[in-house]
Amino acid sequence: MIRKTLIVDDHKLFLEGLRYVLSQISNVEIVGEATNGEVAIEMVLNSDIEWVLMDINMPHCDGITATAQLKKRKPEVKIIAVTMFEDYNNIQQMVRAGADGYVLKNTGSEELLKAFETIDKGECYYSPSIMRTLMRRNTSSVLSRNALFLKPQELLTSREKEIMPLLVEGLTSAEIAEKLFISESTVISHRKNILHKFNLKNTSALVKFALENNLLLP
Predict the structure, then answer these.
(1) pLDDT tens digits along 114-151
(2) What is the spatial distance between Cα 166 and Cα 161, in angstroms, rounded to a whole number?
(3) Residues 15/40, Cβ–Cβ less than 8 Å
(4) CATH of domain 3-125
(5) The pTM of the whole model exceeds 0.90
(6) Modified residue 4-aspartylphosphate is at which positions (predicted)?
(7) CATH 1.10.10.10 occupies which residues in the chain?
């Protein structure tokens, strides 16, 4: 399956570099380039483009605005943020806008391929350094944890509160089990309970929910 891809960045040198990186990935066809979000939106809406590699800081229309508009008007398009920004606010805004992935500009073809494949499976992809930024975030939400829930019985257990950030960090059930000295089946059970309590379908949805509700506490 060919992934018809648009690359969006206002720096010509980076566009050339990204074109080279993508040329090393099979099943990726670059069908266009745009230097701002406004042009990107027009191109995507008037073509059969399926993937967008989106910069954030651009003139006229930035990547966050463009991502939000594209996801609203053509939600099936997959968007990966490719940027130099690894601060919490930019990550959070792109996730809220609907980005399916977030990688840094120093990434190589191997990681981009992993991002494509992960997103193809219905999950979101974040570079390891991005996940570290999220997990280091020292947030002070006006909502307490308990304020997020309507019923006392829906509160996370102490074990679930341990497991949830590790799920968001991208650890597998086996890795979490080893880290917490519990069985893998126990982790799987807790994962199901966490998703059920938040009414979420998968770990990808949990990442977005945690960001939007400031649940990534230190």
Answers:
(1) 899 988 888 788 887 787 776 665 333 333 333 333 33
(2) 9
(3) no
(4) 3.40.50.2300
(5) no
(6) 55
(7) 145-212
| Residue that the structure tokens 């380039």 belong to | 33
Would you tell me which CATH number, out of the four given (1.10.10.10, 2.40.30.10, 3.20.20.120, 2.130.10.10), belongs to the domain 145-212?
A: 1.10.10.10
Residues of the chain with CATH 3.40.50.2300: 3-125
Tell me the per-residue pLDDT of 181-194, one tens digit each, with 9 for 90 and over.
999 999 998 888 88
Dist. CA 79–CA 76, nearest whole Å = 9
Looking at residue 39, what is its pLDDT?
96
Q: What are the DSSP calls for 67-134, one per residue?
A: HHHHHHH-TTSEEEEEES--SHHHHHHHHHHT-SEEEETT--HHHHHHHHHHHHTT--EE-HHHHHHH
